[in-house]
Amino acid sequence: MFQTVSVIGLGYIGLPTAAMLASRKLRVIGIDVNQHAVDTINQGKIHIVEPELDMLVHAAVTGGYLSAQTNPVPADAFMIAVPTPFFDDLSPDLTYVEAAVKSIAPVLQKGNLVVLESTSPVGTTEKICQWISEARPDLTVPTDSAQPDIHVAYCPERVLPGRVVYELIANDRIVGGLTPACSEKAKALYQTFVTGECLISDARTAEMSKLTENAFRDVNIAFANELSLICDELNINVWELIKMANRHPRVNILTPGAGVGGHCIAVDPWFIVHSAPEQAKIIRTAREVNDFKPQWVLQKILSTVANHSLHKPSVACFGLAFKPDIDDLRESPALHIVNDLAEAYQGKIYAVEPNVEKTTKLAANVELVSVEQGLKADIIVILVNHKGFGDLDFSKNTLINVVGPLRSAG
Q1: pLDDT of residue 326
Q2: Is 153 helix (H, G, I), strand (E, B) or coil?
Q3: Are residues 135 and 105 in contact, defined by beta-carbon separation less than 8 angstroms?
Q4: Cα distances (angstroms) measured from residue 214 to each of 158, 217, 264
Q5: What pTM value is reported for the model?
């Protein structure tokens, strides 16, 4: 049914998906506007950090099954995996999805399948049909015809950074087509590499399912983060408290941190709030709690600086990624804390991120340094619990730890 598949967007989801399809000996053409990413992939290398992905991409490229370019070409199926951020007013920004759809519209042919993977507000899959119709009035879409020329479906990714290669295969997938035929066609595509169950639903339910999964996690994280604020006010060790409370057989409190980041949990709940603002009360409150946590951490740092014995002590912030052991800085609370600190404090500020060699996302007066250099700072702030931080000696530094017991490299 599918001989050629085009993946639009070669980032943290698109590239692993493209490589996985290519590993099943499908001809895969990856499309991305980033020329550096395209050139890197065509060399059989990767431009992101993800375990096992480098070997998968290298094998797919050298085997002739995967290539990358900047302009779409005809294919049997198109998978869209582009960013879906939000605007300053927290409303969804579908600019990238719309641009991706309009870029493939000229090369669409009768019988093609278009699948959206990007996490999106309810109704986005239907908008894809609208954009296709505007660009290609010669083609029918599922919102206009029961037997359309172009099949359209939604299948959200649900993988964990650091385990993407495994979870792309093993996790169950929700396939929501705009018609039953769309669902079946999309299911057939995913079954070329997914060993988990492909569950068929409608597009709106699939869209809401992805948002619900991340909103559920956000609410639970918010409980832990709010608990850390309460415990700080009452002079209670929150880590000890959670350890004790979790001995109850039906209690499983998560670990508080510097906030919530990434392109999923920190974003998706706002899509629900935007769609149903009067009803999404708990979801909104959870977002507000988690969005406040970085501000609370910043005030902790500034208070420590103000009460330090040295005038303008140096500060090293350990961890920039939005979660442990990855290089992804998207919506990272740690990154926001460091840059906000740079605005509020004129002393020396260092950032330590073992998974990032360089970045343009740091404020000009923040220096990205090695672990060894970071350990020389007067104040050390642990913002991300990367493996190996637990093996370091912080006894000579003033330590602010907002992530709990640190992990060793072993």
Answers
A1: 87
A2: strand
A3: yes
A4: 9, 5, 7
A5: 0.89
